[in-house]
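Deliverable D4.2, example record:
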Amino acid sequence: MNEGDRQALRGAPGGDPPSGAAPARPALSGTDPGRADRTGHPARAGRSGDSGRPGRTGTVLTGLAALAAAATAVVAGLSMAGGDRMGVVLPLAAVTGLLVAALAVTRFAAYVLLMLAVRSCVDLFKLSGPTAGRAGGGEATRAMDPSTLLAVLFLLAAGLWLAAQLRRNGRLRGSPLGLAMLLVGATCLISALGAGQRTASLLEALRILTVVVMFVVLEQLIPDTRAARRVLLACYASLVLALGYTVVMSLAGQPPSEVKGSFTRISGPFSQSTTFGRYLMFLVIFGFGIHRFLGRRSRVALTVLLTASLGFLLLTNTRSAILGAAIGLVVVAVLHRSRKMLVGLVVVAVAGVALLPAVGERFAQITQARSVGGGPTGNTLEWRVAYWTDIVTLANRNPVTGIGPNMTQRETAEAKKPHNDFLRAYVETGVLGLLAYLAMIVLILHTARQALRRAPPGSLDRGIAVGFAGCAVAFVAVSAASNVISNVVTLWYLFAFAAAASAVARTPAGAAPATGPGVPALAGRGGATST
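Output generated by the structure prediction step:
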């Protein structure tokens, strides 16, 4: 037998065994013959994933997570016992921030949807007091609010993700509305740098910038209307959380509310009833827009949410939000050509005034005169016009870039925000900011019009277009007499709807709406039912 035959009988390394011979056994017990390390030797047992047990790294990370959770619980408990609210919230916010940051790095789309779903309840952990409509204060405390920390985290994560998308694709999906919003954010930052109280002004610019970046991000995440459905699910998941909290607290005998003058107004999970009212305004209008195009189960669920939302909207006693919702719903009814909906609106209005006399009393105050510095519930149109006359001259200091975001109430004896977003844009961000804001308003309405033209009849796309058109008209109307830009949390949802409508507007004319497997329940069944 020659040397080659002897090697064949022994089985050369890496070669096949001779015919009839038993397969060679691995040299080491517990190793995988199909795996080898870089030296060519079989991989050793005990590594993570081989035996189903976590490796050393996983054990260490688990231990550190448990230690961090225990330390957080101890610190929060001691702070709660001492009555230190900041000591309770900040450790919890730190741990939550780390978990959210990990999600943002690994699953950015899921992170954005989570932010939309939970943002309505973040203000429950707010450290600073309410600031909408009046002079702010305590910028250091406000900077440590969980909402501010989440805004910073979102801007960092979104910036990195957008940069990665730009590098990979060579370009970002955009629209004229997105460009106008970027100009609004840029003018706010420029104005804040020249403000008399730079910290307060930069904080406001930061809040507005989160809305701008959210819209830009959602335009990338919504290439078509199929993807838009996930965003809508997240938005209405936030409504479930907001209403659930309000209902539970009300049943417990501690309804979340605030007292303004002679009225007790429901504030929900927000720090002010005005914010809750405007949040409900947008969710209600858009919900009625898409309702008829949903599947049966989704329609039932949304009907419950909209009914509860209308009730709580009236209980917020926020005149601008109630009027804005009425205007938006009329737009939806007209575009849907629904007489039933118009009749229903009249019935709800009459029933609301009859069952909730405070609503009628609140609107009756419009005819009552109120002097500068008067009571908190007599904000009539006469007072607003007088206040607008006083603050318009503030822009004379710097007509190009303005006095800085969030600075009006710090420069007037009344110490109030402008109650007019058009005037606010001029006074606080100058002519440049006003032009950017007007461009944004025009393009919001243009996006709604384009979506209405492109949406196929009888599809959810049509519902998205109609719902956003109602929201857009309500936004413009309410902005003329309120501080809507101050309620940044409500703008997250308005511009989430805008991103969905933008996707509809990009749909080629005559294209069929997306259908097929994998479409969430919100997708609807293509048929229209009366609302």
